[in-house]
Design brief:
The protein is of the alpha+beta class. It contains 21 helices and 10 strands. It has helices at 31-42, 50-55, 59-72, 82-108, 116-134, 149-157, 162-169, 172-175, 179-184, 193-206, 212-243, 245-255, 263-281, 294-345, 350-364, 371-376, 380-395, 406-414, 466-470, 493-499, 504-534; strands at 138-139, 145-146, 417-421, 426-428, 436-442, 445-448, 454-458, 463-464, 479-482, 486-492. A 4-stranded antiparallel beta sheet has the order 3-10-5-8. Strand 1 (138-139) and strand 2 form a beta hairpin. The two termini are 19 Å apart.
């Protein structure tokens, strides 16, 4: 058996590409070329983005996606790149400042000593975000990433955000003095509240912080802030439209006492209207201001109705989250507690305890479910169809299965047994009699010759051990070790042979194919031995 090392040092090198799959740059190359490679590397899919490990389960799929992006030669930003995660952190801050500043400026701008620089900077950031939306790929429902520039542009332009983003970001105050346009179009930025929460969630995930309650508090804060500003702004806007700006200013002078910048007056009126707004939302009895326009009373009614619906919705979300937490996450931690107690009683070493924890975290993804119970509730036809769907992608790569009819192949699928191997686990040992074939569902394994030389890597969709499936006395010619957590399906010889007991001609064809592959493997092995003997320094 090969010596198991804690860290795999790969002996297979690729001189044509670096780890980023980009062509190597000479150390004496111009600064512009090195900068270009650095920027290109930042927009490639990266395992440092937390979303990558959720979307791509194994390193092999990440490498394939990176190759696809590099070979395309495009400068489209991958949604799971390093650049994107830091950009979303920045835009989360920009969207939050917009959602606070824009309604405040529209409603109480005459009481605040506003700096146009702030307004222009926020608009510039939002305009740049529009550009970035045309240059960033997006996830498809089919669990793929769309990187085609035309499709990205079509998806964004005909989506729900483009028009609102454009109208709320253009600096209309430079070309027009119409206060209605200048104050109202930026308010459309409220449609980006959902994007703000998505970016916040990803940013907190990057720092491994649970963000649900922070996001909920942010929603409540911004909605009450928006409604507070609207409660003050809409009556004045209605008066300005119906009676003119002179009548509006006269009403402000009568109620507020000033049209000049005054921070203390702003704070007094803002807190007063925030109190009124939260009172309406919480359906607390509040005395009306009868000298205000009729629209103020309509606002109060709408706020009362909205408050009941909104807080009922929030309550439902909290109850549902608590229910899910109790039924999946709590059960997972309860299971881990039982496992910990079991390992403590039997005095498992720390190293073994960590491996057991790693196994359970991968298997259940931090949420416990009874797989057998779910599977048992399915009909036999549905269970077979689901299994066929899960296995067809990598079974179709097995040449010895090409000639097997689909009805027999379905019987073979039933015999497959799922197994999970942790990093450095030995799946097959060279020189022993094997009786199983393995299909890699997810993960990467390394194949070693009997002398310990690393031959190749196999990953998602690959298979190994087919020789043992049809030759009962043939010893394995290579060792296979898991490089990361691997989910594989094992097919034993006896059930496989039983499935083909009425298809002897077919079984002989499979044997011939296996012999051909065995001969090719032996030839490769002999060439490696010859190379090693003539070049001993490669060891």
């Amino acid at each position: 058996m090969l010596d198991q090392k804690q860290t795999h040092i790969c002996a297979i090198t690729d001189s044509d590409a670096s780890e980023s799959m980009l062509p190597a740059v000479h150390p004496l190359a111009p600064l512009s070329m090195r900068l270009k490679k650095f920027l290109k590397k930042q927009i490639l899919v990266s395992e440092h983005n937390p979303q990558t490990s959720i979307f791509f389960l194994t390193s092999a799929t990440i490498v394939e996606e990176k190759k696809r992006q590099v070979e395309s030669g495009s400068w489209i930003v991958h949604p799971f790149s390093v650049f994107r995660i830091y950009y979303e952190m920045w835009m989360a801050l920009v969207f939050f400042l917009n959602l606070v500043y824009i309604p405040l400026s529209a409603a109480f701008g005459f009481l605040l000593n506003e700096d146009e620089t702030v307004h222009l900077l926020l608009n510039a950031c939002c305009l740049f975000d529009i550009f970035m939306n045309f240059c960033t790929g997006y996830r498809l429902p089919s669990l793929e990433v769309e990187m085609n520039p035309r499709k990205i542009a079509k998806h964004y332009v005909f989506g729900i955000y483009f028009i609102c983003d454009l109208l709320s970001s253009l600096p209309f105050d430079i070309v027009t003095n119409n206060s209605v346009v200048n104050d109202n179009f930026p308010l459309l930025k409220i449609v980006r509240l959902g994007t703000l929460l998505k970016y916040m969630g990803r940013s907190f995930h990057f720092f491994k912080i649970r963000s649900f309650y922070i996001e909920l508090a942010t929603v409540i804060l911004l909605i009450t802030h928006y409604l507070t500003c609207l409660a003050f702004y809409l009556p004045l806007l209605g008066m300005s439209v119906t009676h003119g700006s002179v009548a509006r200013d006269a009403f402000i002078l009568k109620e507020i006492g000033t049209l000049e910048h005054d921070l203390s007056v702003f704070l007094n009126w803002y807190t007063s209207f925030w109190y009124d707004t939260t009172s309406y939302l919480l359906n607390i009895e509040k005395e009306f201001k009868f000298d205000w326009p009729a629209v103020a009373y309509i606002e109060a009614i709408v706020f009362c109705i909205f408050g009941k619906v909104f807080f009922a919705f929030v309550t439902a979300i909290l109850l549902e989250r608590y229910r899910l937490y109790k039924t999946v996450e709590t059960k997972f931690y309860a299971l881990i507690s039982q496992v910990d107690a079991f390992m403590e009683i039997h005095k498992f070493p720390i190293k073994l305890q960590k491996k057991v924890h790693q196994y359970y975290k991968y298997k259940y993804r931090m949420k416990f479910f009874n797989e057998n119970r779910v599977d048992d509730n399915l009909s036999e036809n549905l269970r077979t169809e689901i299994r066929y769907h899960k296995l067809r992608t990598f079974v179709k790569n097995v040449t010895i299965f090409d000639s097997i009819p689909s009805e027999i192949l379905e019987k073979v699928f039933i015999q497959l047994k799922k197994e999970i191997y942790l990093p450095q686990d030995v799946i097959i040992t060279a020189g022993v009699s094997g009786d199983s074939m393995f299909f890699i569902s997810s993960g990467t394994v390394a194949v070693f010759s009997p002398t310990g030389k690393e031959i190749c890597h196999l990953s998602d969709g690959d298979n190994f051990g087919e020789i043992a499936l049809v030759f009962p006395n043939k010893k394995t010619t290579a060792s296979v070790i898991a490089l990361e957590i691997c989910e594989v399906y094992r097919l034993d010889r006896k059930p496989f042979k039983k499935c083909l007991e009425k298809q002897q001609d077919l079984y002989k064809k499979i044997q011939e194919e296996a012999k051909r592959r065995l001969k090719e493997t032996d030839q490769i092995h002999r060439r490696q031995i010859l190379t090693t003997s003539t070049n001993p320094q490669i060891l």
